[in-house]
Write a structure and sequence with these properties.
Number of helices: 12
Shape: globular
Distance between the termini: 41 Å
CATH architecture of one domain: Sandwich
Number of strands: 29
Strand order of the largest sheet: 28-12-11-5-29
CATH superfamily of one domain: Substrate Binding Domain Of DNAk, Chain A, domain 1
Amino acid sequence: MARNFTDQSHPRQPGFQQQQLLHHLVFAKANPESHFLPHLISPLSSPYHCAVDTQLQKCGSAVLSGVWFKKPKSHKELPPTSLKDVPKQQRRSKEADRILCILCAGDRYVVVDCGGGTVDLTVHQIRLPEGHLKELYKASGGPYGSLGIDFEFEKLLCKIFGQDFIDQFKIKRPAAWVDLMIAFESRKRAAAPDRTNPLNINLPFSFIDYYKKFRGHSVEHALRKSNVDFVKWSSQGMLRMSPDAMNSLFKPTIDHIIQHLSELFEKPEVSDIKFLFLVGGFAESPLLQQAVQNMLQGRSRIIIPHDVGLTILKGAVLFGLDPSVIKVRRSPLTYGVGVLNRFVEGKHPPEKLLVKDGTRWCTDVFDTFIAADQSVALGEMVKRSYTPAKPSQQVIVIHVYCSEKENVGFISEPGVRKCGTLRLDVTGTESTAPRREIQTLMQFGDTEIRAMAVDVSTGRTVKSNLSIDTDLHAANGKRVKALDIFAYALAFFKEQALKELSDQTGGDFDNNDVRWVITVPAIWKMPAKQFMREAAYKSALVSRENPEQLIIALEPEAASIYCRKLRLHQMVDLCTQTTQNGFSPTDNVGSGMTQGTSHQH
């Protein structure tokens, strides 16, 4: 299955504090199937926190954040990191910021992380005084990010110039295709409900030349012959789109987002929502903002943080400092294992009957560990005990399954899929018990599920392997292992981050000084999260011997952790359409991910 990579654009930052933007790392664009655009290194208040923002998208974004805690071996004098070190005048300002926080005890709020690949929705509650989070509704979502607008534009080009030409042009002229999509991106940012002027999109000369060779007539001729009246040809070599035409490209994507938000707000768990935070590059789209306002009809205040494009990044750093901030989560899926049970007439279907050595067994039984939407505390462990079907078994294989349904009876039911395997080798061991007991344990409540099998008599253990094997299609048609591409990217980011940390502090850093946080969409399943962890192992970002050095964080959760601490001067309230600190809520459109989280304070 072909995958695509793109970036999460960064916000315009008038008045943005200089020390919060250390350095931009810009990587070369390759082609539309695999290219990396701007990336960012940005510190927070402490000089010992750092984050590297990367976007690896269409299959979902990933923000790679490093949080380090050790002092470098040598370092320059750095700004004060505690309140007592701050001069009294500045201290009063910081204390005032605390008072001006917009959230009060008991407030519920939604965070919608808007970008390029997906939309995630999840409901949380903040508990005081510690400010810990409790998830009230399981994560949900879909591929409704702003890349859908690019897809609509590509469909428009196919309608004008032909699907066969566009497919060939992408293969034969990949760099020109990237230039065309960049030109469209800049015009996409200018779309607004009240715009009256047409939008001009530069066509690369390579597009015009290749089309004439391919079809035998000009681009202008194709536009005249097409049935697309709202796109004209400009003598300056541009496609001229009417504002309504551009807005129509947004409609399918925004409709999906609004439908998903509407369904979320109909849930009984989502009531009395005081604030809705829009974050991410796409959140700056006036079209999306207007659609969300029309949907809410004043039920909640819509807030956009000033550093909307860095919200996930900063939240990921905060999450790296305190991974236990989210105390209770809802299980997005039902998890269990496949087992054999004694066959019970009238309870089990006849087709599941298996007779072996005179014993009647029921096959394919789904033994549930946790049900979908069930609340689980951080670190909560569920344990089951099993015995091998044959006492002489030397290898015990336990398959882990999952389903979106709350009640699952058999692993053969529709929608049930295998997500991991526990393979315990007990060769050369003997059990003193009449029947060997195998304990299967699953730990829930974190962003990753940990599964383990233990041979009680010997203490031998094995952990699960929840991973996926995915190929990527390059623009030249070649297939490459996704794991190799992600590992290569992570290795590159690690090298750049460590170099940047050393350059900025004047000290020497090695990888052991860093705790890494990779943020992923909330709708990612366990195999996808394990895939990112495997890529981190392969890239030597972290080692299998020290897995705690890497934290997998959910993007809307990271955004929520940051948004709950917002002050009045750090945001724009769309309900009042105010502009503060030079920030306009209708500045531009980005192209990151689209996700949502809902919380109560």
